[in-house]
Amino acid sequence: MIFSARELNQLFSTKIKTGFNLSVCTDSRVIKRNQIFLPIKGEKFDGHDYINKILNKKNMSIFSFCENGKVNKINKKFKDNLIIVENTLEAYHKLANYYRKKINPKVIAITGSSGKTTTKDLLASVLSSKFKVHKTEANFNNEIGMPKTILEMPEGTEVLILELAMRGKGEIEFLSKTAEPDIAVITNVGSAHIGRLGSTGAIIKAKSEILKHLKKGGLAVLHNDKKLLREVKKAWKGKIALFGLGQASNISFKKGRTSFITSIKKLHNEKYYISAMGNIYVLNSLIAILIGKSLGLRKHEIQKGLSTFKIPIGRGRLIQISKDIFFVDETYNANPDSVKAAVSNLIQCWAGRYKKILVLGELAELGKHKKKLLKDLSQWLKKQELSSVITVGKELKLFFNAPNIKNTSNIDECRAILKKLLVPRSVTLVKGSRIAGLEKLILGESLGKDKN
Q: How far apart are CA 290 and CA 342, in angstroms?
């Protein structure tokens, strides 16, 4: 996004003078001529510390935002190059919201305890068959990443898909206020972030904040969860579309593909398939179908997007190690609910004579509930049809004990055990939080072709 001096002066009641239009930069290391620096404050840094150095560059025509309380740190000779605001993060969001309104795409905002990224990417694949789509990339889904995503939106964008992440109460509402979504999606509500929020009820309330700035006449697309619906109805009186496995029949898994028939109201008996295996992809597909239909897509356009969808790295892609040995790469993140979902998916999709192995890494952000959640997960895993479970990390040794469980302290120990278990007709699910670093195991073992 390029801003004129007039736009900036109107937005922030300032009086900067320049004949050039200005783009926004938050990284002092890469700032260029005719840009405006927006200093962000982090836990270990403050961008205001670099303003003097930036504005001292010759022949650069650089301007900078500056918080009112930090002006005394800035050399007085640069006063005409400053836009004074109370809070630079709020200024960043103000710029993003202004640009969102200027381009005026259909905005789809997605939150949930798990499945946000896969849903976002699948939606983008489906909607790109008809619209010019811009979406959240990588992990730019927080209070700094989301405005960056909006401001990088091309002018011709027709649909903007935003992923909204949170760590605590109030954060989703803050992001939703900037996004002003036309469609809001809550993929599910589970135990992710329970360490920060304290209870599932608090998580439901926090996720439901996405609806506080859903546009009048907008659509809420929700997982069919009774507790979630009770909370949603307090915040949103408009249109709601529900999705759940009860809206799909004849689900089958074969050769890296999931097929199903919809039983959604008004969409009965439409057959679809997606190039991924598991009920979770049925749920993701139902979200895409509901939103696609609401935006006027026809069945063949939706199916085109489902067919071309590629599973993101670390989020369930299937890797073939040799002729009949497979890995399921779920190394991006994990919580107890997503572990259960992934294991259930493994057992269901690979039913029959396949030997099923789970490699489980550490789970983060469980807080004071950690002991109970890990104990419950351990008991649940004992009842599942898994030939072997390998845990990675000293912490898990305290909770996971059974004849088919091997506890290891690190990835090298895990790899040594796993190699002995990788026989023909075997499939290994690798699942853990980012702190577990299990992608190193995948990289060390994936000698074959990626099937997705």
A: 24
